[in-house]
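Follow-up to my post from last week.
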Amino acid sequence: MTKSTNPLISVADLKKIYVRGSEHIHAVYGISLDISKGDYIAFVGPSGSGKTTLLHLLGCLDNPTEGSLTVNGQNVFSNDRSMNERELTKLRRELFGYVFQKFYLIPTLTVRENITLPFAFYQKNEAEQTADRLADLLGISHRLDHLPKELSGGEMQRVAIARALINKPQILLADEPTGNLDSKRSAEIAEIFHKLNQDEGLTIILVTHNHALAESAGKMVELRDGRLV
Amino acid sequence: MPSLFGIAWKNLRRKRLRSLLTIVGIALSTWVLVSLLGFNQGYENSLNKDIDNLGFQVLLTAKGCPYEAATLMLKGGTGLKYMSESIIDSVIANPQVEKVTPMLMHAVFDPNKGESGGITAFLGIDPTTYPAMKSYLVFQQGQWFDQPEALEAVFGYEAAELEQREVGDLYLLPEAEVEIKVVGVLKRSGTQDDGTIFLPIKTLQKVYDVEGKITSVGIKVQKETDLTAYEDELYKMQDVQVVSMAQVKQTISNLVATARVMVMSIALIAILIAMVGVMNTVLMSVLERWQEIGIMKSMGAMTSHIFKLIWFETILLTFVGGVIGSIMSWILASVTDTLIRSVLPYSPTSSLVQIDILLALKAIGIIMGIGIISGIYPAFKAAKIRPIEAIRSTDGEI
Amino acid sequence: MKRGMLLMILLLMAIHGLYAAVGCDLNDPDRDVKRLFPASTGYKTHYVSIQQKGGKALLAKVEQRLGDKFTGLYETMDVPYTVYEIYKGKEVIGYIHGVNQKGQYGGIQVFLALNKQGVIQAFYYQKMTNQAAKSFRSSEFARQFVGLSGQDFASYDPKAGKLEGSLIKIKNPSVKAEADFKATLRGVKKNLILMQEFGYIK
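User reply:
Got it. Predicted complex:
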């Protein structure tokens, strides 16, 4: 359990319990953890270990059943109080960027439009310039006017990463980012994450089954049965 | 940078056939709605035109049993009861009256018409007062007769066509076998005047031996006159019947009102059916994009953004469908006119279905309004999606 | 008051009904076909006009054959003509065709019943307004036309009105009705020419 002064994300005794009929399933069983700015953490573990659930909780995509969660000094969830959906949405767009296994690009929008999609929901100046810079950084400048169906898997994931970064988040959350890619493309993505963390100082939290990717992270944290090992 | 509207528009193009079919459904409902609104407008206007074209506001006829009189007239003979000409003097004495014109309707059996004869209707008019009241009547050839006892006639267009009469031709008055000269042929007016043969009233009275008698008096009142009050005064007169053109309009309107209510209900049902189609299309589209919408929420889309996004799709569908439907109804107005005419017991002669820009805009507005309402449920459902639900809906992992 | 209104409505409706469209249809085709062709079992109705069948060129030809121009408001290229094709079983046994002709006092409607070769089987006035109408409508007058065909009328000049050759037997029933007698003959000639030009008879 990492403890540091002024952590970016801090959880204490975090629990997530699902009720299925008469059964209570502890997906996450009392985890306490601090994540600092600039950390690059990979959660690993077998299927059902709760790593994805933990990722969702840390990323404010889901509410814990018990415990406390503080992000950037703000109390997101505690036994007394939790943020409402509106507050959570605001928090997410200011601090987080998300990358998923399935890319989730809008098929009717071009690459450029997909990257700048978050700005359909709130105003930001220099949106186009940031998009160009990110496209350049991720090696997809030549694809900006193409539709997702014209891209390879690796290219699509890069677009998703660019989109996740467009709002200049402090934390990048990635759930099995190489799950749908071959080894060559996976290695490219691993390289990108490494670069973002080292060069841009981006805090990265990811979940993966890919050993190469996990090893390229700064820290590997293993979960088993909803607990840290 | 995409806009909400742009995203909505592009999304409709994702499933083109589905969007197209939905638009077709809306277009058809709009066609029905616009046509029926056009009919409502057209019928009223046409009816008023027919009645206003009578030229006078109040008609006095002889008291009697009009049912029998009408049928007697149709079968031939002078079944209509007469009034004395002197009635004109008492009517014109009233300062509220602007103009008065006496008329003598006379139907004669003509044995030469068709196989076993037919009826010809003559209208005896006063050449000094009648033409002024019907100033909209235009001549194809010739003009009105001016002498009160001339053996001359003016033919309505269709009456002239049947007898192949032109100005200068002779005509033989049936039964009496009196020769008269045709001095005018009117252009088609789209009213009952087309089938009428006009003669000077004194001539008609003399030929058919009904001197001093008339069948009706047309009255035009001064502008400032209270028509209802004036009619009340007329009721007091002996042996006459007062027919107010305004009330005739009302009666016919009432006769048609029931049909109109039924017709509007049908239009409403057609609209509701199309709207259910819209709701279904948009709802299906939302369900298909469950994950996408959830991810948008994770990117910072608020509930209101998603709500607007889905709503835009509904508005686009109804707007496009509404416009197409309005154009269709405008193009097919004459077809609709023919259809309605075949069903109604009495149709005014001018256009039954009158569609203008204002009407089309009104209908499009109604369609869009109902569309907006039917879009609320899918939009609400979409707006409520939480990112985690979207992500989880595919993943098996906890 | 209400009765007065009903009267008004009835008047409006009635006058509408008195004058139907003007072409030259039989008033009661079922009855008239049976009467003129007692052996018939059925008929077909065809609508033709000069405009349809040949336009200006056809009109010029018809006028030349008639020996007179088409005049007035009502004798135009687009006037519809009705030809009744008479059947016995599946076989065509003849035709009935009527034309409008301007008379002295009103329109004259002259109908001819023709056999397949175009020979007049019957002559019939559906409409004729004249003081001497009765004598015109008599069977004696009508019988004068039976057996005649287009060929007999070929050299007849409707403007001069002089009867020659096979037409000489046709007598005017009334001296005072000379105009309508000439109009009738013009109508018959026009009727036969149109039937030939429309292609029903030779």
